[in-house]
Design brief:
The chain is an alpha/beta fold. It is elongated. It has helices at 15-26, 47-55, 67-80, 96-111, 126-137, 146-149, 154-163, 239-252, 277-293, 296-314, 321-333, 364-367, 379-399, and strands spanning 6-10, 32-39, 60-65, 115-117, 142-144, 177-181, 184-188, 218-225, 228-232, 235-236, 257-263, 269-275, 339-346, 349-356. Helix 4 crosses helix 5 and helix 8 crosses helix 9 (277-293). The strands form 3 sheets. Strands 3-2-1-4-5 form a 5-stranded parallel sheet, sandwiched between helices. It has a 5-stranded antiparallel sheet with strand order 10-9-8-13-14. It folds into 3 domains: 6-163, HUPs (Rossmann fold); 177-294 and 336-356, Argininosuccinate synthetase, chain A, domain 2 (Alpha-Beta Complex); 367-399, no CATH class. The longest helix has 21 residues, at 379-399.
Length: 400
């Protein structure tokens, strides 16, 4: 007896998700498989992917263009939160998963499916992100994960697919596993599994090698309105266009590479390479603008919130009560995070060299050491006495 009659399958066109189609039908008795490929600005033509799903046995093959939503509903809130997992990774891949889960749930409702499925294995983070997000959006939907249960090696998976007319992939000269969307690329596997091996230049596509970058620096001015990037060099741009243009100019100067040992949710340490040029610079610029426009206590308190927020995205809890509560806090902090940050790009470095805002809390007459100084220096002595009083009492008692 089958586990479901009609299933919507998250589909990428790769070996695992293609084999999921006949596997669901022949091993698990699913009557109808509808595939859903999400266009998140990965820069590839998805029509061949759509056709491959039909050739692999899908009754219907859907392509959802969700790039605009990906930027405005997922990337921008993460930028407002300065979301960096383990203070390094800007979550370019992780942010895509709750959106894909939402598309699956919506398609299941539209087409009357009683289950959704994905091709994640049991070792990665994505299975958690999909399963938990889908459950949060519709707890009545079954979630099927054939690749987590079939126990086949890659060779066996390819052979299984061939039995049902899925062409064996041309042997790839590249041993790497790559995931790409508008926000960046993640690269793993192959020689990169040795954490002591320097990443070869061939794995990069969005960022130039330092030797190939321009010999003159470039300056880019990024303008924000309430924590949302809106303009580059004074020109108002649509969200997707802004990311595309910034990816190009930042990557051209070799900025945006990350090489890290990452702690996966399932308890494994994984060596990961990321290219996220625009996203890294946007977070860097946004955080700097906050230093100009937020009070000290809000700035310091928000840092802890940002770490929790980043972990929640990484751990698949985008649709959760705590995340919703943190969103409210973050949105409140962004009311006056508007202004422009000037970034210098040169030989792999992005350096902030200027910032301005009509909501700036920086007061030149108080900060200056020149003749314009209006700070009351005499007030400092009484302030220090009161501020240091607990320490003084503690020291006296200890010595006494």
């Amino acid at each position: 007896m089958g586990r479901a009659n009609r299933v919507v399958l998250a589909y990428s066109g790769g070996v695992d998700t293609s084999v999921c189609i006949p596997y669901l039908k022949h091993e698990w008795g699913v009557k109808e498989v509808i595939t859903l490929a999400a266009d998140l600005g990965q820069g590839e033509e998805l029509e061949p992917v759509r056709e491959k799903a039909l050739k692999s046995g899908a009754e219907q093959s859907l392509v959802a263009n969700a790039t605009a939503s990906f930027v405005t509903d997922y990337a921008f809130p993460a930028i407002q939160a300065n979301a960096l997992y383990e203070n390094r990774y800007p979550l370019s891949t992780a942010l895509a998963r709750p959106l894909i889960a939402k598309l699956l749930v919506e398609a299941a409702a539209e087409y009357g499916a009683d289950a959704v499925a994905h091709g994640c294995t049991g070792k990665g983070n994505d299975q958690v992100r999909f399963d938990v997000s889908i459950t949060a959006l519709n707890p009545d939907l079954k979630v099927l994960a054939p690749a987590r249960e079939w126990g086949m090696s890659r060779e066996e998976t390819i052979a299984y697919g061939e039995r049902y007319g899925i062409a064996s992939p041309v042997k790839k000269s590249s041993p790497y596993s790559i995931d790409r969307n508008l926000l960046g690329r993640s690269i793993e596997a192959g020689p990169l599994e040795d954490p002591n091996t320097e990443p070869p230049e061939e794995i990069y596509a969005l960022t130039k090698a330092i030797a190939d970058t321009p010999d003159q620096p470039a300056y880019v001015e990024i303008s924000f309105e309430q924590g949302i990037p809106t303009r580059l060099n004074g020109e108002t741009l649509a969200p997707v266009t802004l990311i595309q243009q910034l990816n190009e100019v930042v990557g051209n100067h070799g900025v945006g590479r990350i090489d890290m040992i990452e702690n996966r949710l399932v308890g494994i340490k994984s060596r990961e390479i990321y290219e996220t040029p625009a996203l890294l610079v946007l977070i860097q610029a946004h955080r700097d603008l906050e230093s100009l426009t937020l009070t000290a206590d809000v700035t310091h308190y928000k840092r802890g919130i940002e770490e929790t927020y980043s972990q929640m995205i990484y751990n698949g809890l985008w649709y959760s009560p705590l995340k919703a509560a943190l969103d409210s806090f973050i949105q409140k902090t962004q009311e006056h995070v508007s202004g422009t940050v000037r970034v210098k790009l040169f030989k792999g470095n992005a350096t902030i060299v200027g910032r301005t805002s009509e909501y700036s809390l920086y007061t030149p007459d108080l900060a200056t050491y020149g003749a314009e100084d209006q700070f009351d220096h005499k007030a400092a002595e009484g302030f220090i006495y009161v501020w240091g009083l607990p320490t003084r009492v503690w020291s006296q008692k200890r010595r006494g």
